[in-house]
Sequence to fold (457 residues):
Amino acid sequence: MTAAHRPIAGPELLETHKKRLELVRQCANESTEAEFERKWLSVLRRCAAWFSSMPLTPELHAEPGGAFRATIEATFYAMRLAGGQKFAADMTSEKRRRLEPQYIYAVFLAAVCSLLDEPCRHFEFVRASDNAQWNPAAHGAFGEWVGDREYFVQRRAVPLKGERMRTAMFARTVIAPELLSGLDNAVLSDLFGAINPDRSPQGFEALVHKVVRQAMDVAVDFERKAQRGLFAPVKFDVPSAVHVALELQPQQVAPVAAAASPATATSQATPQAATPQSPEPAPATAPGPSTDVSPSGSVATTSPAAPGAPQLSQSLLDALQRSEAQPAAATAGSPTAMDAPNPAAIDPSQMKTSPTAPKGPRTGPTDEELNEILGPGSAMMREFFRALADDVASGKAKVSWEDKGLTVQKRLVGAYGMTSDTLVEQLRKRALLLRASGNDICIVERAGRLIMERPAA
Fold:
């Protein structure tokens, strides 16, 4: 307990992660803002009050406020994975239409509450004012208990054993009872069974539990990749194009007067102008009356700019001077156009065409191609095909063609925010799956061409 830490208020945490909250809002797909506020945002507010500025673990999301950041990321991944699942598949269509929104909401609640116990397992939190230690079961939300006072963080010698029942008990402080009143008993059972999911389930696994578990794994995997890549957080907003244009406005200078006539330049040419070396162009001068040295050695006097004359930038003036210098140098050091031999005529029929090179990886499928193969909707599948095609084109990912389709390794799929099981189910629904055996997923040829063109035989 060396350095004191300051708490972070719930509204400040929500403002910090407002972009991720917007993604959750899109996945929630509520019809009104009031309904989103009542069912979704209120839960996230209580979750922010529970965590305040606590880190998650000593290894992952260890910065102040890292526990809430991990919760927001896992929640978004869970919502995204839930969008491609088929809940209550064994029910009738009428019951499924009624239960599927409840299951998606259960995924959200389970993902938000799954990490409530994680900081307390690894750390002890002591209030600096009275040296009181936080007990979540007795004191409730950490943000309300610590208030605006500083606190100390001490790492436990041995982390506490994870207990799912304890996490479910803490979830009652985050989930209001009225939010559970609209859920069926089957949905409630799957909800509380998915809070703090078992990372290595044995036997039957409910779909809600599976989605939340996979979302937690994806969040951990992305955090470890970010730590290995040492990505620094971006703490500034990207300026708009208008601001960039105003900052890069060219410096205005007076226009250069017309160059001296060719006759005058020829009469005043010096012997040095006849040498093969072309002189360097003279640097641009400041606005006002000045002199310019022509390529042939003559001096041209510039007059002040007229009141109504256009103002030219310095870079444009330099380009004009270089363009005037090149014809003069070419005339002095090269034969005239009359002395140059005429080029030989070329018969197009005698030209040999080079063999067609095999088609390489695509730069990315178009929207029309994605709509034709994948159908409308399913933003998750569209983003997966686009991202994988870009990585294959840049050499970051490797896929291979077989006799009937394109083979993708299952270990690649998790890096694109989707599990291999979800990809197999989505491909099977669209009749785009040839086989899924071992570590490979084989996609039919017409869908595989969205990722990489088949090379020529």
The longest helix spans residues 207-229. Residues 256-306, 352-362 have pLDDT under 50 and may be disordered.
